[in-house]
Amino acid sequence: MKGLWDIIPRNYRRRAIGVTATIFLRALLNFVGVAMLIPVLTLILDRENIASSRYMLEAYELLNIDSYDSFVVVVCVAVVAVILLKNIAILLLYRYERNYIYSLYRYLSRSLFTTYHRRGYGFVKQHNSAILTRNVNVVSLMFVAGVLKPIATIIGEVLLLVLIFAALAWYSPMAALLAVCVFMPIVAFFYFSMRRRLNDIGERENAAQRTKSRIVAECFRGYADVEIGGAFPELFKRFEVAMDEVVMLRKRNATIGMLPNMFTEVGLAVGLVSLVLLSTLTDSDNVALMFGIFAVAAIRLIPSVRGIMSGWSTIRYNRYSVDTLADIDEFDDAEILPCTERMSFERSIELRNIDFKFDDAEINTINDLSLTINKGERLGIRGSSGVGKTTLFNLILGLYRPTSGQIYVDGVALDKDNIRRWQNTIGYVSQSVFIADMSLAENIAFGLSADAIDYNRINEVIELADLKDFVTSLPDDIHSRIGEQGSRISGGQRQRIGIARALYKGCDVLFFDEATSSLDGKTEENINNAIRRLSTNNRALTIVVIAHRDSSLEYCDRIITLQ
């Protein structure tokens, strides 16, 4: 419970007071609905009750009704009207609770999404994207729907049970005692026999669902390798194992979900049989009335007991969601507001005594590196695989933070307060440019909505990136969709789209991370020529290139080698 309370943000904790009030009111209204049936029952089973009850007698005289039967009809109509109004009020109260629950889901899902994003590139690379996706989209929902909603249900039903038992104890102590003797053992038995089993089932299903999500995502993401390598049968086998685990656990949970109905029905039968036996043994005139009162109370007691047991089992089943959300950061709308400011770059980028070590590594990837990149320079970086070239890029791009040392732009140190403005100033073309399942224009103006795109600018950068022939081959020109991860385009076209994307930003510094390493010789030459033309036509543009082959660095003013 403490972990649950820590997950709920402060402003939602305050609103929880109002939700608690609505839960109490709902319990009170449900109690009124049950209590309203008692007068009808007593009027039917005990015609003399109207004379012995002061309240009944006053109501009879106030209504000035001539016959007992007419009075019964009026009371029944009034009871129906009250119950109808009660249910309307309950719907309105439940609407308030529902809005709170799903507003909290929206908040938690957004917070988890931004939490993962805020933890940076290193965190994302260390975790499976399918699992992170499931946590954001599914686990947050399981928390509110499978933990908070059942808690609200349990609180409401417990309050109702207290009211009903109190009323029973006042009106018929024997019926109250019977209800306690029947239903309390049921709840206790269910709790002690199922608590560990349900928690285990929930955790195992979550693990199996995560495995399924990972397998499916990896299968589609690496479709070509999966197909050529003949790996699908093995992946499908693993998927089937996880699926069988989910199905088996779901069956167990469904069986457990039936137990509250069975237990409560058995309890009702035991209670009624006990009253019949009591009536036979004692031959008391009050047993029939007590029988009716117990039956009316049981009409609402059974759903309440069932709701408590079902709600508790749901909480245990989804308890894993509390652990997943335990380290969530509070959501701040200001954090995701778009920033269009750019950092001034007029002189140089300077790296001073940079060290960098990954969290799970024992030695530094980069040791005491100092480097100056001047504005307008074409700098080439080479070195063997694993020497830290891409890591160096990620440091300059602001995706990693140095373990020690500092990076300066025109003498201004890069930090968390200005890194977004620096990233708005630069462009980046990786080994495999990210392509979203959107139109070509939206991929070039990545991060902008379709109605915010400058299509004149799009056409300009298409010319500069030598994409004109590709665009004319598309069915819908620049509005054509090019497939998830660029599944419908070649490697050279992908890299040119990356260049066009950087140019659309109007970047001052353009980084190429082995952008031609996976291309054939002819395509590589064409891309290098396109980069050379960009540099020649805009000498103020700073270009930094990582490459394995010296042929890709021929146009550079300076080449450094990392060892």
Record keyword descriptors for this entry.
2 domains, alpha/beta, 563 residues, ABC transporter transmembrane region fold, four-stranded antiparallel beta sheet, Rossmann fold
Radius of gyration, in angstroms, nearest whole number = 35 Å
Number of E strands: 9
Report the top-level CATH class of the largest domain.
Answer: Mainly Alpha
CATH architecture of the largest domain: Up-down Bundle
- Biggest sheet, open or closed, and with what strands and sense? 5 strands, parallel
Run of helices and strands: HHHHHHHHHHHHHEEEHEEHEHHHHEHEE
At the third CATH level, what is the topology name of the largest domain? ABC transporter transmembrane region fold
SS summary, helix count: 20
Widest beta sheet: strand line-up: 6-7-8-3-9
- Coarse structural class: alpha/beta
Q: State the helical fraction.
A: 55-70%
End-to-end distance: 53 Å
The average pLDDT score comes to 77
Measured by DSSP, the beta-strand proportion falls in 5-15%
User: What best-fitting shape do the alpha-carbon axes yield?
Assistant: elongated
CATH evolutionary superfamily of the largest domain: ABC transporter type 1, transmembrane domain
Q: How many individual domains?
A: 2
Low-confidence stretches: none
